[in-house]
Structure formats: structure tokens, C-alpha cells
Design a protein that fits this description.
Length: 150
Amino acid sequence: MILLELLDEDPRVQGLALRTLTETLTRGDVFHTATAPAASYVAAVLGDPRTLAEVVDRAPQEEVDLGQQTPFELRVGLLARLGDSTVEALRQRSRPYGDAEDLEAFLNALADRRAGLRDTDLRAAFGDGPLRLRAVDTLHSWGEDVSAFL
């Protein structure tokens, strides 16, 4: 249900789905059996126009406590979450917090999507948006020459 809500027509539902997905799949930086298929789905839908929706991922009480959050494109949030999770998975590779198989499955799920994500990463790396540095780091981790971005 959470994955389907990422593509909901209501940006409030999409934002809360992003938050729930993040909290559920990598709680405590532990990769679970469901993390790899969910990451694969997220990577597959990045090109969907519904991911261009402006969302917030704060719960209503957080909006009261912390103030109103500046909306951001769901696609930006999804890419950031994938990037953060990838960095964490690579960091844990030698000493995983959970099952090594789940962590490797996550990395393999994204490796299968690498070719499709390369163009998206290149566009972000050449841009000046919030994902520029994450995109450059990602390209570098894939063995790409990133000297043009530095």
C-alpha cells in the first residue's frame, strides 16, 4: 500500500508515504527483506510524472512543533532516500547491522537499475539543484569520471 501511495494523486498522501517508506524499510539503519524490492520499485517509478508533485514529509504534529516545511519534489525526496540508503549500505558492507543477504540484495536491486538511473544522475549532476552533490557522489561510486563536475 505504501508504494502505491507514492503515486497517489494527493501530494499529502505521497509525502506521508515517502516518510513511512523511509521509516519502515531502514529503521535503525537495518536493511530488511522488503528493502530491496521496495528500492527497485522506487527506482522504476522515478520517471513517472507523478513524482514531480510538490510534497512535504512531516507529520501534522511536526508542522505544529517545527513550523511549516518547504515543499519539495517527491522525485527529489525519493532520490535522496535512495542515495542515503546506498551510502549507508556501502558503509555497512563489511559489518552489516542485519542480514548481509538483505543488504546485498538492496545493492544488487539498485545495480540492476543503474543504467536507467545514469541519465537521471547525469542531469542532476550538471544541474544546480539540491541533488547535485548526491548525484556526483553516486556517479563516482559507479566508477564514472566526475572531474567535469568538480
